[in-house]
Amino acid sequence: MPVLTAVAVQADGGKELLALELCGSESGDAWKGFVDDLKTRGLRAPLLAIIDGNPGLRQALGRLWPATAVQRCCVHKLRNVERKAPKHALDELREDFHRIVYAASGEAGRTAYTAFERKWAKRCPGVIRSLQDGGGELLTFFTFPKAQWKTLRTTNVIERLNEEFRPRVKTQGSLPTEDGAGSALQPRGARPDQVAEDRRLAEDRHRAQPEHVGSGMITAPGRRRPAMRCVVVEVI
């Protein structure tokens, strides 16, 4: 069952889970409702949204936050491109693709992009169609500081979240309920009383930490959050 997911990347580099939402399918309507709910809960337009290639998600973001820059996940795009190429060409294709996304500058990345198009257009037209589906949004991260490129290229932060869920969520019935955290989300081998104590200690530490105001984060009465740089949105 799809779980729509959003993670915020704050100005100080910290990350915060914004939403997990079960849905029947990864449809355009599902993504529209998901993004609308983020805004309803107080999320302001982020500087950047890092997304996979779902067209419904892209349309929802464009409608709600038209000024927000969009970065297409380079890992997802490489997977899409690989599906259009014969197996014997995959190693060469990956090398050429990596020249684009691991270029030393935005100009070098665009040059490598053009060279990729020229080289593969006749050999594998489907590869080029898949690459161009991402368009310039594959290179958006180059407009941000170089120190942030590694974080901004991909939705890997959500991929890691998916890896954490897989061994813990075995069936839909084991998902958490309103009256408790649910055993599926507890660390394996953890006792219920230990989990409750760990949660209490974490809440105490959070209350003791100084917080400051910033734009772009979900806020609740009495709570203030650092400014948000971008939001990573995907399905797990």
**Average of pLDDT:** 77
The number of helices is 9
End-to-end Cα distance: 9 Å
Pick out the low-confidence regions: 178-192, 208-226
Count the E strands.
Answer: 5
Sheet bearing the most strands, described? 5 strands, mixed
* Shape verdict: globular
Helical content (DSSP H or I, runs of 4+): 40-55%
Query: What are the secondary-structure elements, in order, as H or E?
Result: EEHEHEHHHHHHHE
Radius of gyration: 20 Å
Write out the strand line-up for the largest beta sheet, numbering strands in chain order.
Answer: 2-1-5-3-4
Strand content: 5-15%
Classification by helices and strands: alpha/beta
Assembly state:
single chain
SSE topology sketch:
Layout: E1 3-10, E2 15-22, H1 28-40, E3 48-51, H2 55-64, E4 69-72, H3 74-82, H4 90-101, H5 106-120, H6 125-134, H7 149-152, H8 156-165, H9 192-208, E5 228-235
Parallel strand pairs: 3-4, 3-5
Antiparallel strand pairs: 1-2, 1-5
Helix pairs in contact: 1-2, 3-6, 4-5
